[in-house]
Amino acid sequence: MSEEVRMKAIVQDEYGEAVDVLRLEEIDIPRIGDEEVLIRVQAAGVERGAWHLMAGVPYLVRLAGFGLRAPKNRVRGLDASGIVEKVGGRVTRLRPGDEVFGIAESSFAEYARAKEEKILRKPANLSFEQAAVLPISGITALQAVRSHGKVKPGESVLVIGASGGVGTFAVQIAKAEGAEVTGVCSAAKADLVRGIGADHVIDYQSEDFVEGGPRFDVVLDIAGNASLARLRRAMTPNGRLVIIGGEEGGRWLGGNDRQLRAMMISPFVSQKLGAFVSPEKREDLQTLLDLVEAGKVTPVIDRSFSLAETASAIDHMQNGSVRGKVVITVG
Fold first, then answer.
1. Residue 137 per-residue DSSP state
2. Three-state SS across 7-64?
3. Per CATH, is 6-134+299-329 categorized as 3.90.180.10?
4. Is the CATH code 3.90.180.10 the one for domain 137-275?
5. Which of 28, 137, 228, 259 is the most buried (most CB within 10 A)?
């Protein structure tokens, strides 16, 4: 394959909404380093971070180094599955032709580069679409349940946003840890949440998970908007709260203001209140794969879109009706 070969990719040159800023273009295939692989993308997962980087909000995203006035990287996408096309000189685990999945750079394209350490071989019992939606949301859920929630067998766990991308993984992982899980979602998605293992389901449109209900050992708030005071009332006196995102709070901080307040309050109360930014760890990806192969976790896919329909895929993810994950089929 020569360096002049080009590929189709979804690109953007300014911040904004998907329909306004995303377009399908031909660009150069990325060059790989010695410890990287080039993947011929078969499918790419759509996660909420892709929207934040596309829209440039909250503005903290821009200040974090992704570009003040325009995105530095023209192509979105991190989750990917596909076939190894080429390997760098220091790559030892993978070779051309291997079916793989993991965390890549700019996966909304026909080809993407990735560090070898962030890629695993795809098992035969996972489709490319299923494998593509596993990495970012699955790792986030795993770290929320195990590393930060420290869920133990027999504990009660409340998952707010149980029907979404991270939530469907969190419910299954908490059940795999032996917890009694209550999922919060709309009535229309209750059967889905029960189907992936939740012991109880609360319809947030007609029920209050605080008033008159049980108190939970662990509360996982995934992109919720409840105040810290309300969340604390849903917890046992020594309960643990893990805030995983948030979609309100203004264009500067977004939902991060709740996270900052939680970490400030936590040292002064008996409950543990926390939040985190999920690091991309290969060992966590391997743990997820082990759970999938053991039949304890199954990726939930709402709908697939073609590469040319990426703007529609992101809009669909944002409209609140999604059950599980949205995937872009490329190959």
1. H
2. EEEEECCCCCCHHHHCEEEEEECCCCCCCEEEEEEEEEEECHHHHHHHHCCCCHHHHH
3. yes
4. yes
5. 137
